[in-house]
Structure of Cellulase family glycosylhydrolase:
Amino acid sequence: MRFGVNYTPSRGWFHHWLDFDLDDVRADLDSIAALGLDHIRVFPLWPVFQPNRTLIRPRAVAQLVSLVDAAGERGLDVAVDGLQGHLSSFDFVPSWTTTWHRRNMFTDPEVVAAQEEYVTVLAGALADRPHFLGMTVGNETNQFSGDPHPDPDRIAPEEAERWLQRMLDACEKAAPGRSHLHASYDAAWYDGTHPFTPAHSARLGAMTAVHSWVFNGTAQRHGPRGTATEHHAAYLVELSKAWAEDPARPVWLQEVGAPAPHIAPERAAAFTEATVTNALDCPGLWGITWWCSHDVDRSLADFPELEYGLGLLTNDRRPKPAGETFARLAREHRAAGAAASPRSTALVVEAGEVAGAPLRAVCAPGGEFFEAWMRVAARGRGPACVLSQLAGDARHLAARGITEVLTVAQVQ
């Protein structure tokens, strides 16, 4: 089990790439390492690193490598996201894909070739660094592919899969054997019209990434202390396994945080404890990476209010109660050394045909599958999740340690 944090620089947020200061980065990393965490996830800004389709800035790449080296000196492994893409309500896409040069970022041949070259350069620059974990194609790049994005690059699921596979193949070729993956926000699990699907998340790349945010209707419907709110991360981890072809495929809880006002600041530590404890009860969990390391400096304008206070550390690098809680839970789990036992009871997911999952809205907050899963969780332990197409497959069930299968109708 890995415990880490998504690195948000305390000085200048992700705009720090424009005025990169390695001493500031080192101080940030010292404060992260002091919590006892073992890895970070970092975010190069795509238009800063590749401002022209045929220009990938060598100095920016060298700065990324120096950040990874500094993290390694502090015992922190590093996962790197490529196409940023989207961060904290802001889009960061290069000028050569917008306005006068408007073209689809997933299907335009020149854009896709340039993206392939970009992730190849980043992965290749880090391939010999022992503390480099691998590449994530980008941060929630699926949000560019449909509603509610104000200017989406619309694609079909088949086009999404081709794009993902091409990016993943480029990462693997440049840095063989590392854990290369991709990450979607929860429309991939909850919206039957969305072109990025559960099967994409659970079958492409080295592991499955889930991003758990309870402002998606969960906290609004169930409240800050509700079972669904405190189990949402564990639910997504278990839900993702329904589409995995490999029963042993690891799942990375790559983003999870305590967003105000849905989770009041004074309750952030309790939410952190409940969320992490419930997630640690999921077998096959690779790690938990909290969002985020440091609060956003309030001198920076126009962020949604919830974004300013999500850090485990303050903007001046002091641990917050949630940070102290996360650090304690990491210490306790390492000391215990116990692995989660299989979930022997499974709830059947009726999401339609497997590849597209057109009925996956049943898995969203308020959906019949979601609410049934949470009713079971309220009584003790949430169930495993199994697709209806596999609910009668004895070999599949045995491989996952499932001995009892329930339908939604059976859960009162």
Summary: The chain has a mean pLDDT of 97.
